[in-house]
Design a protein that fits this description.
By secondary structure, the chain is mainly alpha-helical. The chain has one domain. Helices cover 53% and strands 2% of the residues. The structure holds iron/sulfur cluster. Iron/sulfur cluster binds next to loops. The site of iron/sulfur cluster has 10 residues, from loops. This is YkgJ family cysteine cluster protein.
Length: 245
């Protein structure tokens, strides 16, 4: 049924699907219990029109899948992740276009970001090797506040929702060294949902996709602005609301 999805996944053709989710998918795609999650998320996404709703739908599925995993008493003991610990927010995060639109919506609602840092991060593109050439400070996610908390926590991307390390928080610290192997909590069901989201929407790193949707929105506003000026100079009057088709 989802033949187009399978064609996306062989090596080299899916650089923006988060690597962990992609590996999980490759391992579990033949198990109906897991593949059903990917299929039903794709089917649902194809029925939703609004990009914000699509992103929120995937986030709800991911949270629901993770509930059981993160409720395990052993994880409570061995996962050191907590507010203010922001090592993973200095790494490369992939998002879908729907998620980028949701982040833009947060900016529209008043969340303030550093546009210079966004520009710097988006200029390096999607390649991880280029991203990690930036300094630790320059790699900080534009949604990270001065206390190390996420300004868009409720609407944070799917990938951020599955990041949980087991053992020492220092494993995630990339301030002095490149990120080595991490012992992460396995979130197989959430990964299957994430693959579905990335299979049906354009995607890239958070800075690249956020810049893209910002530019597209600004361009459409500019067209509206210039059209108003043009109409004014050519003497065209706005069409009264009640006579519009
Ligand atoms: S969106 Fe939030 S949780 Fe995700 S990397 Fe940025 S600051 Fe961290």
């Amino acid at each position: 049924m989802l033949g187009y999805l399978f064609r996306w996944l062989p090596a080299g053709e899916s650089m923006n699907i988060p690597a962990i989710a992609k590996n999980t998918f490759e391992l579990l795609r033949n198990q109906p219990e897991f593949m059903n999650i990917t299929e039903s998320v794709v089917e649902h996404l194809n029925k939703i029109k609004s990009k914000l709703e699509k992103a929120r739908f995937v986030h709800n599925v991911v949270d629901e899948c993770n509930k059981e995993v993160f409720a395990h008493p052993l994880l409570k003991e061995f996962v050191p992740c907590k507010a203010g610990c922001s090592g993973c927010c200095h790494t490369q995060v992939s998002v879908t276009e729907d998620e980028a639109e949701l982040l833009l919506h947060n900016i529209d609602e008043g969340v303030v970001i550093d546009y210079n840092r966004l520009s710097l991060q988006s200029e390096v593109g999607n390649e991880a090797a280029d991203f990690y050439k930036l300094s630790y400070k320059e790699r900080a996610c534009v949604f990270l506040d001065e206390n190390g908390a996420c300004k868009v926590y409720k609407d944070r991307p799917s990938v951020c929702r599955t990041n949980a390390v087991v053992g020492e928080a220092s494993q995630c610290d990339t301030s002095t060294q490149a990120q080595g192997p991490l012992r992460l909590v396995k979130t197989p069901k959430a990964d299957m949902a994430i693959v579905a989201a990335f299979a049906v929407a354009p995607s890239g790193t958070l800075p690249v996709m956020l810049s893209k949707v910002l530019k597209e929105r600004n361009a459409s506003e500019d067209i509206g602005f210039f059209k108003t000026i043009f109409d004014r100079f050519t003497g065209r009057k706005p069409v009264p609301k009640d006579t519009r088709l």
